[in-house]
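Onboarding guide, step 5: your first structure request.
Type a short instruction followed by the sequence, for example:

Predict the 3D structure of this protein.
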Amino acid sequence: MPVLDPNPQNGQKKMLLVFGTFLAIFVLIAVIATIAAP
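The system replies with structure tokens like these:
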């Protein structure tokens, strides 16, 4: 499976969704860590 998808419409949207989910989880962990820290 090539890194550059021949169909960027679906592939790029899926990649953006995965990246957005990862970023959201990272921010959520950072916020929880900040709240948990005294």
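Each response can be followed by summary notes, for example: The radius of gyration is 15 Å.
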